[in-house]
Amino acid sequence: MAILVPQSDEAVTRTTDRERRRKDQQRSGGRKIGSHIFLLILVIYFLTPLWWLIVASTKDTAGLFGGSGGPLWFDGEFHLFDNIVGLFTQQDGIYWRWLGNSFLYAFAGGIGATVLAVLAGYGFAKYRFRGRSAFFSLLLGSVMVPMTALVIPTFVLMSSLGIVNTMWAVILPSLLSPFGVYLMRVSTQDAVPDELLDAARVDGAGELRTFFQVALPLLRPAIVTVLLVSIVATWNNFFLPLAVLSDPNLLPVTVGLNNWQALSNAGAGGEQVWNLIVTGAFISIIPLIISFLALQKYWQGGLSLGALK
Amino acid sequence: MALTTTSPRTAPPQPSVSRKVGVDKIDRKRQRWGWLFVGPFALVFLGFLIVPLAYAFWMSLQTSTLAAGTQFTWFANYGKAFTDPIFLEGLGRVGRFAIVMIPAQMLVALAAAMVLDNLTTVLSKFSRLMIFVPYAVPGVIGALMWGFLYSPRFGPGSDIFSLFGLDAPSFLSQDNIFGALVNIVTWQWSGYYMIIIYAALRGVDSSVYEAARLDGANSWQIALRVKLPMISSSMVMVLIFSLIGTLQFFTEPQVLRAVAQGAIPVSYTPNMYAYSLAFSYSQFNYASAISFSLGIVVFIGSYLFLFLTRKQNGLK
Question: How far is B213 from chain A (nearest CA, A)?
Fold first, then answer.
């Protein structure tokens, strides 16, 4: 591994150090190349499946099986637009419904979970109400409860309430995010000084106004992180919608594509829709990847917030 | 709206300080606002965590048969679960996954983070994002993609191996499916863990490294003896995340099941077993007992781990 690259703002000015560092840099020239080769190998490993997906979404089913370009390169033919049209015609364009459902569930669940987490994190961090520490220890313990263990009892409970196989069956359980509350509590403690809240109160602001106008703006990076994490969690969820939804029109895109894949594998003659599965998968991952790239300055610091102190 | 007051005693004390004795009435009134802020979450917590858990426990204590209806059988289902070879086999399997998969992910994440921490080039910034990108891909899609890549019909396996004059192994056979799944999960999660570790490394004051180098430490020594101990709390967090995730392994084997005919039985992991018991066989009571047992194993496992590493993670 290469030696630390000196950064201008931390440059130490003692001459002995400077000389030593110049020698280090000369020596580390070779190691830096080694580091970059290591990174390139990692990048190739992590991008190959995505590259394959891009290439494959331009092929028709015959091209997927034995195209002239091989699995990792384009064929002479370009079928991306045919495939997109295919997604509109296959089962009356149900794919786009699935995609819409995924958006609805992820945003409703993610935004809801974030709002609850911000409120609760602030409450835990800034008020000393009765039962606070008991509730918080319970919450910390619940971070370790595997969420999938809750799916089956939640299903039975919701089916007795008659909301199984409706969108609420996916959205309501997604509102639960103990880890989000934990993250918001830690960041409220870090980012919102008590003195500032007291100053606002002295100036006559009520509790709600203090929260909205003083605390919330300071919490913006943490809120974006929790929002992204909860949207991703709901968007990626598979077990819950698989268990609670049976109406094909209500499925999110993850479960829908999985069903297509199972059908195509079962080999029923007319149901081989490999090209649509691939193109559908490709289109469905674009929005999240773009939002992560666009919002990187927020989450890169925020994701480490939960580290135990 | 709550009252405001200029008394310095009403400043909310730091959470770590124990409650002061003489908190006045106005302050106590204000502290009730805490419940209003926490309340909405508390409702969801109650409705979708406490109640389902309690209900799962209640269901698991009952047995329902066609002949006798639903009967209260106390811990019979647990006795059955912990002597059920299918459940125990699944538990052993996720245990083996934990032993292989967690070190694999952490090693990739740690090595990538350490290398990235030493570089400030354009390539390193690009790599950091690209290594992270799989986190934004749903587990189902990741498993679908790898399923295609593994497939002898679609995948590049045979092309790549023929370059070296070899026959491609069948990745989806019974012998190789374990490694195939480890690879998918490593691909999916290493980037996320890398970002956590990388952020922790950035947070360390670089004068520490400077001092170590002046003392004659080489870069390997700095990485292993100085950097690693300084980020141990993040490592513990990453480990806990991946442990909890691995023990409830479900999505990837469930998706690959369709492609890997015969290599993945319906009861491959405890979660898959509980799913098929509940939704294919309508054995909700026994499925609850399996889910609850798995929950207890995960909970005890991660608590035990946090306890054993209390020195590193700082939770005294």
Answer: 10
pLDDT in tens, B49-85: 999 989 888 988 988 877 777 888 888 889 888 999 9
Q: Are residues A39 and A107 in the same domain?
A: no
Q: Which of A124, A154, A242 sits opposite B38 (nearest CB)?
A: A124
Residues A67, A94 within the same domain: no
Q: Say how many CB pairs under 8 Å bridge A and B.
A: 342
B155, A207: Cβ pair inside 8 Å? no
Please identify which residue in the block is written with the tokens 């608590």: B303
Residues A252 and A187 both lie in one domain: yes
| 8 A C-beta contact, residue A64 and residue A75 | no
Q: Are residues A69 and A172 both part of a single domain?
A: no
Query: Going by C-beta distance under 8 Å and a sequence separation of 6 or more, which residues neighbour residue B118?
Result: A1, A2, A3, A4, A5, A35, B219
Taking CB atoms and an 8 Å cutoff, what residues of chain B touch A120? 37-38, 40-42
Q: Which phi and psi (to 5°) does residue B99 adopt?
A: -65, -35
Q: pTM for this one?
A: 0.84
ipTM exceeding the 0.95 mark: no
B15 closest CB neighbour out of A56, A117, A125: A125
State pLDDT tens for residues B78-129.
Answer: 988 899 999 999 999 999 999 999 999 999 999 999 888 888 788 888 888 8
Indicate the SS3 state at residue B15. Answer: coil
